[in-house]
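Hi there. Long-time user, first ticket. I'm pasting a complex I've been working with (about 427 residues overall). I'd like to know whether the download I got is complete or cut off, because the file seemed smaller than I expected. Thanks.
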Amino acid sequence: MESALTSGLQGLFLGAVSLTPGQAVMILVGCGLLYLGIRKGYEPLLLLPIGFGAVLVNIPLADMMGKEGFLRFFYDFGVLTEIFPLLIFIGIGAMTDFQPLLENPKIILLGAAGQFGIFLTLLLALAVGFDKLDAVAVAIIGACDGPTAIYVSSKFAPHMLGAVSVAAYSYMSLVPLIQPPIMRALTTDKERKIVMGVAKRPVSKTTKILFPIVVTIFASILAPKGAPLIGTVMLGNLMRESGVVERLKSAAENEIANIVTLLLGLSIGATMEAANFLRPQTLLVLALGFVAIGLDTAVGVLFGKAMCLLTGGKINPLIGAAGISAFPMSARVVQVEGQKYNKKSYLLMHAMSANAGGQIGSVIAAAVMLSVLQGMGIIAG
Amino acid sequence: MDTWTFGWTVALIGMGGTMLVLWILSLLILLLKKLFPQNAQPAERG
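Hi, the file is complete. Here it is re-exported in full:
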């Protein structure tokens, strides 16, 4: 009886005595993410489940990422198969109004410039010693687009998924802090005061319906490896603009997006096991992710300056900063910055055009990169 | 293929390709707007 009691008590404390320092640190990291999501409001929809997943997966002996673990099931089902990010993309497409972009299509070029940080960061990642596919996964943080980052990193560097996802979502929520100093440093006072005209250019319903179909066909043929990304965003947008599948659109942007966001967040958190996450490489990923978003902003603003020059001063270069995928946060940052220097300057609609361009741009940039990698034989066809 | 050949190739083609694809998309949008202008749709005159 006495030995049975001792064994029973030992079993009760087995978890506590099995806790490694690494697991304790990761539980604190998970709690830190929960704090950022709950108290600071940084991307709570993602950081809360990610943080909780990180706590769960580091509970000693619970083995939730083991063969029978429930987190393993979600991860294998939704992340390894890339289903979760693609389902999120359908929801994003259903939520996004591309009207500002359709009204002013030339602004889409700012959405291309806003992705250059991806490619410049790729070079930096290679310079600090990441191997080719790991460097691609780090660079994709510059898409400033969580699902794209998850899609690419889960496909080519799944061991880095946790760090890449945390960096992508954390920095997206920090856009209002990251962008303004760069915008101010790269523009003159005169440029920041430019007032852009408000020219309403109505767009027909037919154009809005044909837009996602044309983009899907054209962009997917040019960059077939990115067809799942492009196709799902545009499917969601077609459901929105067609107006004939209200129930599907509503499900995509509500129920499906919510359920998948929860499971995706938990699955990402589940990749943050101490052995995977507590490495110097993780700090490098976080640092390079920060640089990537800074470079996106810088190149976007510089491209805006070039457009300003070419149009004889009709474009305020600040809107170039909105050529990233953080929608509509980045457009709001541009509006606030513009107003600081000229109360008569209303840049919001123009910045929304650039921001919508950035949303398409991030997906296209990822698609182009995957197709280039395929062409070079780095990834399988 | 060495690291730097890989890096510069992906960077240059990636940036150029993204810019090219989006530029063509902007032309396609202009074409769509020309083919289906707002005022040509009686149902939307409202």
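A couple of notes from our side: The radius of gyration of chain B is 19 Å. The mean pLDDT of chain B is 87.
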